[in-house]
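User: Please predict the structure of the protein below. I'd like the answer in structure-token form so I can feed it into my own downstream comparison script.

Assistant: Understood. Taking the following sequence of 181 residues as input:
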Amino acid sequence: MKKLIIVMLAVSVSLAAQQTRREVIHSTGNPAEDRRPNSDQVPEVYALSAHLQRIVMLRFKYDTDLLAGLQKMVKQEKIRNAVILCGFGSVRNYQVHQVGNRDFPPKNVFVKDPAAPADIAGMSGLVMEGRVHPHITLANADKAFGGHLEPDTRVFTFAVVILGVLDEGLDLTRFDDWTYR
């Protein structure tokens, strides 16, 4: 009986630590708006020029939530707009999301693995009006993968993220607005 209980506990622990996936539709709440075609009033591409005011280098220690730490430091350092220049290190586990369809409204596929370590092969993204929009590339012995960084991605050995803080007057509000089309 004692061996059976030990086996059952081991199985339940391993099941709890498996990769999970969930899908979320990112809708405006208005189906007509979600499906509307591109507007001639929105340029196909536009450019903003900016100067780097300063470089901020962040180092995260073992078991820190990478996204929460990044958000905390953006607030603490009073960073309004920035570009994520790079990131490297390793994580104990991860949660990311990727786009999961080709038609509007977009569907996000969240992938979480509480027991899978990985190297941080790169990071990119923006800070817009104090809101962090980070993308992360992770790698293990079998593959590289990534997506939008999500909560509960915890640092293993260390992580470094380098931010280039941009001019104050810059308006980046439309840069990740999927309805601006």
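That's the full token string. The mean pLDDT is 92.
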